[in-house]
Amino acid sequence: MKETILNIYVEIENKDVVGFKAISYEAEGSDADKINFLKRQAKSDYMRAVRFEAPVNEKGEFISYRKFSRLESKGYHYKLYEEIFDYFATPDNPLICVTPVLDGKILAD
Q1: Tens-place pLDDT, residues 8-18
Q2: Please, what sign has the CA dihedral across residues 46, 49, 51, 57?
Q3: What number is the average pLDDT over the span 57-68?
Q4: Is 95 helix (H, G, I), strand (E, B) or coil?
């Protein structure tokens, strides 16, 4: 059965999360196969991925990657990526591969 899967990029500049990019695919197979596919595509997908705004704090400032990572590790990543999930009309709990982009460099294998 095909499902929507996503490559998501977290753009980090000067230790702050300044934006997201994402691209979706319809894929079938095991979760491991889908993750491997997304990882293989990570570098080539970045340039053609759709850009999204980064979250900001109550002062309108970007949040640090450290704070972002803590929120993500506490299970808030679905809130952080909600705009992306809505844009691609994903089902609940989509399979995603998140790749950091640090000062313009894609940190993917």
Answers
A1: 999 999 999 99
A2: negative
A3: 91
A4: strand
